[in-house]
Amino acid sequence: MSGSASQTPTAAKTASQAVVLYPELLEGVLPRGINMPVDVGERTVKAWDMSDPSICQSQEWRDDWCAKALAVGSGGYTDLESQEVVVRLISFDEPATAEALFAGEGTADEVGQNPPGDEIDGYEATSSAEGWAGSGFNVRQGAVVAKVEYAWAEGREVPDRLMDITRMVVERVQQAQSGDNPTASMR
Length: 187
Fold this sequence. Notes:
alpha+beta, about 25% helix, globular
């Protein structure tokens, strides 16, 4: 790598030739509003390096994960009334690190047949908004782990798009890890 030690490289290849996702590339993986369903707009999209590990912890990642992470990212999408999507990403230097930390045990009943990613788990999410319910997936793709949460106001008619959004996020990770621009979209 060239440049001073204080510069963060935008990409590097591991032994398996997958691009390592540093903050700039990790932020590009996060969907933008244009990639999300038309009725859910972009609220925030941001990625951070690990110069301040408390940011990693504030994004709800465990301490042992933050200690090994290269970057974290978060995107929020909402219609401000009935539904909200949050995508959180954490990137490691190699797939073996992510694999050692993530023990996906998703069953076909939880995640369906042929789910996205190398490993996946489903969970019931708790929303900070009173009267909202939610669910989510934790999914590992190579050296990146994503948390994708979908929350909705109880009693509101909203489509269940959690798996579709998760598939898009995994595809965007795969594209970036291959050195391509992340272009996967739900539109």
